[in-house]
Amino acid sequence: MRMSSREVSSSEIKTTQPALTPQAFLLAKTKWRWPEVAFWLVAFSLIWLMPNRHLLLNEIAILGLFALSIDLILGFAGIISLGHAAFFGLGAYAAGLMAKHGIGEPVVGLLVAGGIAGIAGFFSSFLILRGSDLTRLMITLGVALIFHEIANRMAWLTGGADGLLGIIIPPILGQFEFDFRGATAYTYSLVVLFLLFLLARRIIHSPFGLSLKALKDNRLRAGTIGIASARRIVAIYTLAAAYAGIAGGLLTQTTAFVSLEVLDFARSADALLVLVIGGSGYLYGGPIGAIFFKIMKDGLSALTPAYWLFWMGFALVVLVLVGRDRITGFADRLFAPVVALFGRKAR
Amino acid sequence: MLTILFDGIAYGMLLFVLACGLAITLGLMNFVNLAHGAFAMAGGYATVVMVNWLGIPFIFSLPLAFFVTAALGLVLERTLYRHLYGRTHLDQVLFSIGLVFMAIASMDYLMGSSQQFYKLPEALKGQFDVFGVGIGRYRLLIVVICGLLALGLQIVLAKSLFGARLRAAVDDPRVARGLGIPVNSVFAITFAVGSGLAGLGGALATEITGLDPTFPLKFMLYFLIVVTVGGTSSLTGPLLAALLLGITDVTGKYLAPQFGAFFIYAVMILILTLRPQGLFSREK
Amino acid sequence: MSVLALETRGLSKSFGGFKANTDVSLKVQAGARHALIGPNGAGKTTFINLLTGVLPATAGSVWLQGEDVTTISPQGRVRRGMARTFQINQLFNELTPLETVGLAISERTGFGAQWWRRIGTNSAVVDEAAELLMRMRLGDVMLRQTKVLPYGKQRLLEISLALACQPSLLLLDEPAAGVPEDERHEILDIVTALPESVTVLLIEHDMELVFTFADRISVLVQGMLFAEGSVEEISNDPRVKAVYLGEEAHV
After folding, report:
1. Between chain A and chain B, how many beta carbons pairs sit less than 8 Å apart?
2. What is the tens place of the pLDDT at every residue in A231-247?
3. Partners of chain C (3+ Cβ pairs below 8 A)
4. What is the complex's ipTM, to 2 decimals?
């Protein structure tokens, strides 16, 4: 008897609200939880703990940032994009061209890369204000294809299919030299990812962030309580584009190379897969998904070098078929305490 | 000049056959199937195998390509696609991109990554002059086949009992079921026919567009353009859009090759921004 | 003459060949409890969509507190004091009532676009939201997700959300639609207790609610203004009765 009554009460914990004042309730939602702290502590400690995997870790951090930028528009504003690589590529080329022509300072390069991508994002955001998911998806795809085409045709500037050669990256802030084992690279990317993550976290927990969630939920109603939806979407799309541009800039600076690959459709699709794996709408989906994605890709490439694309496709099909909800639902049950502590609402 | 126009028309007709299956699944069934090009590719490869390896005459291999891909479409619809009808567009997009990746890798594995060709029968090679306009025999064949198909499809959809059932099933599956319409089989048959048409298009396209494992990605946007720019209220819209796209693309590549496909993308973005419902559909 | 809370002049809307609203000229006095009634398909919902700017008018104009707002966006009209509820709930299912209402308050007070400030740190907004929800009998559920609330509570939230915009003109689109009988009174109480300063235009199908609540009634039939008058005038008008009974009006 005792056992069963205890079970009932523990299963009801989810439904009964703790006695909180409204303000405390709202503030509690935005508090840092220990798994979040642990996540970042582990990420930073890997600088010392896994010195021979720094190159891979660097790629994970960059992919995580790129996926985070898509999460900002997909997970928080509900906009599907198949062409986010346009901004990634733009940032990558911007950083590369600057370094090649003498302004190599990495931090300045990143800011410019983010700025240029942000400007491009601002202007293209007006194209996706109207229409359905389908037209958005085609317009974003079309924008990315145009960028790809331009980069391809302007070979005198971009190096075309051969890639941009001769990029030399000086030390960060004149202090930290890039080493070929990737220690500086990983540290640098991780710090940038962390700072941008902090900013994103602050933004989604702001009134602006809440209004985005409302827009995603019900755009009609959002308009009738006075939310100017177009402006909010332009703002978040611009920000997401700037994030993607910075991610691209990081890739260029840490590998000292850019090629047309940065604008590939596959890059946009990869990042979407990352979000499918990691989940969207709670900010950690990008970084966490990136870890699994890279490990999976590494393993599969080692197994069947030419055909890992098949397994990527297979993963997408299976993940979607089983149901993204069901997977996260399963994960919720399995890791319920942990997930709850990450601040994600059980759907 | 008129030869270019004719080539453009032939190319447009070809795009229509490639994309009309998508016009039905996307336009009527509201399913975003980015893997439509994979069926076209399957048809193309099937023809290559039949003509080059098995020695089946080209003309007979065309209907066979249709049936092979239709069967493939039917199997996939019954096993995979039908689970996704009610899902969000995002799920459908991710799922079908996954299929595209699998198709690309599989074809790469089976047939290699190089361009594929088949031997055309002598009768279809070369061109002849009509009032000084050079008409390619093969392109003429495409125009004839595709024109007949377009006409036939329009009649089937608008006039036949099956067309009526399909429209009813799309409008409200629950009510349609209540009326005794076998909704599931209607969807399955539609999907199969759509895939089969893509396969036939792929078989015809190999000679003109080339065929390699990246085909589904390269032409994905073209198919989507035909459908979204054309609108989905009838098949006339997609047909006009396909012709427009074909003519623009061929003329563009001939007159200003340095721009590549740039022009097409720009026009598409412009049209979709100004008229999200499509160029030829009435505003709702 | 005092300024009208709302006025439409020759407002018309057609969809292709179908005329949903034809030449509707309506005047709503400030502080009024005005009801707009009409049989199904009379064009009431189209009319409210024209008022709020969700649909563009084909012809005519909309005046709010003496200002022509015909070409102003829906958000602009909200800022000028027009708020509405929906016949079918249009709520933010993933959010809590507290967040939902807080959103509208932030928007009204100009904090809606702040991206640097954490939610909940602005106690003026939180207090106002909590206070409004208490008053609307949603105090006990304000920290739950909206989608798990019972239907009657969601209807109340629908009205609360409109009130959070502090409207001078409130458009209620069938506020009690679909609410079970035993929860109806809660909504009626709330609606009748609305402060005098708020002008209310009630779009309703339910005659009982209209007759107990309204001081003035307009009747819309086939997209046209058919009759207008006090409650007595309308309830005794044989033509209106005929319309509602679906008979030919022999006058």
Report:
1. 123
2. 999 999 999 999 999 99
3. A
4. 0.85
